[in-house]
């Protein structure tokens, strides 16, 4: 694979006394959506947080755009072009939607054309633009979290379970926005338990188990093979 946007080589991460990542090798192709899959508790969220620098890698190497960022501060990784949507959303409840969005803009104010696109993708945010984010529903907060990460063009987006616990209509809105982002040529590493969303968006896939990546390949191959799904994850996608 030529010129990947991101690569992890033998990355180990400990949290307190727990050895969470145990030699993760992962390559994210430029301009594609890579699905990071696996059962709960296998290290997917820790992988994203290690890439973002919220957890420090104990050993191994993380390369982004050809540069070693293993020891780089989280803020510097953000400035280098990595956007992160955490599972817990990280919304500032006492700030307005507009103020939350402003925090996602590193290089300057939100550009009008970018704002127009985001509000067309997430219409609820237009309705509550001047309202405090704490008044939003759970689904609307998740929309805001994603929209904030998309406030500027990023070289890479890390997105952790964006559709978790959401109503089907909001899932459809999320998937449509991510599909449009994909069409724009974005590079995305996406953790997602909704397999219909994973199948629709993913180009490639990496499956984790016990703190390691145990399989990589085309998302289409994984989506069409029940035997592979059950061997790697102990379940069939059709049942989820």
Automatic annotation (TrEMBL):
<dbReference type="InterPro" id="IPR003593">
    <property type="entry name" value="AAA+_ATPase"/>
</dbReference>
<dbReference type="GO" id="GO:0015658">
    <property type="term" value="F:branched-chain amino acid transmembrane transporter activity"/>
</dbReference>
<keyword id="KW-0067">ATP-binding</keyword>
<dbReference type="InterPro" id="IPR052156">
    <property type="entry name" value="BCAA_Transport_ATP-bd_LivF"/>
</dbReference>
<comment type="similarity">
    <text>Belongs to the ABC transporter superfamily.</text>
</comment>
<feature type="domain" description="ABC transporter">
    <location>
        <begin position="6"/>
        <end position="235"/>
    </location>
</feature>
<dbReference type="GO" id="GO:0005524">
    <property type="term" value="F:ATP binding"/>
</dbReference>
<dbReference type="InterPro" id="IPR003439">
    <property type="entry name" value="ABC_transporter-like_ATP-bd"/>
</dbReference>
<keyword id="KW-0029">Amino-acid transport</keyword>
<keyword id="KW-0547">Nucleotide-binding</keyword>
<dbReference type="GO" id="GO:0016887">
    <property type="term" value="F:ATP hydrolysis activity"/>
</dbReference>
<dbReference type="InterPro" id="IPR027417">
    <property type="entry name" value="P-loop_NTPase"/>
</dbReference>
<dbReference type="GO" id="GO:0015807">
    <property type="term" value="P:L-amino acid transport"/>
</dbReference>
<dbReference type="InterPro" id="IPR017871">
    <property type="entry name" value="ABC_transporter-like_CS"/>
</dbReference>
<protein>
    <submittedName>
        <fullName>LIV-I protein F</fullName>
    </submittedName>
</protein>
<keyword id="KW-0813">Transport</keyword>
<dbReference type="Pfam" id="PF00005">
    <property type="entry name" value="ABC_tran"/>
</dbReference>
């Amino acid at each position: 694979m030529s010129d990947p946007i991101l690569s992890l080589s033998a990355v180990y991460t400990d949290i307190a006394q727990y050895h969470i990542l145990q030699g993760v090798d992962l390559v994210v192709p430029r301009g594609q959506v890579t699905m990071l899959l696996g059962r709960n508790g296998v290290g997917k969220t820790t992988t994203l947080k290690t890439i973002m620098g919220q957890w420090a890698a104990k050993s191994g190497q993380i390369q982004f755009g050809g540069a070693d960022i293993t020891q780089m501060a989280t803020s510097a990784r953000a400035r280098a072009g990595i956007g992160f949507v955490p599972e817990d959303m990280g919304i500032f409840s006492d700030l307005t939607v507009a103020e939350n969005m402003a925090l996602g803009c590193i290089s300057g104010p939100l550009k009008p054309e970018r704002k127009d696109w985001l509000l067309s993708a997430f219409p609820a945010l237009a309705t509550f633009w001047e309202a405090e984010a704490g008044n939003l529903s759970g689904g609307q907060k998740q929309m805001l979290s994603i929209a904030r990460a998309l406030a500027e063009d990023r070289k890479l987006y890390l997105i952790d379970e964006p559709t978790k616990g959401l109503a089907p209509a909001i899932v459809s809105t999320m998937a449509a926005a991510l599909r449009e982002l994909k069409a724009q040529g974005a590079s995305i590493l996406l953790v997602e338990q909704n397999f219909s969303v994973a199948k629709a968006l993913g180009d490639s896939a990496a499956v984790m188990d016990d703190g390691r990546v145990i399989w990589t390949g085309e998302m289409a191959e994984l989506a069409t093979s029940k035997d592979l799904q059950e061997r790697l994850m102990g379940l069939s996608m059709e049942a989820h």
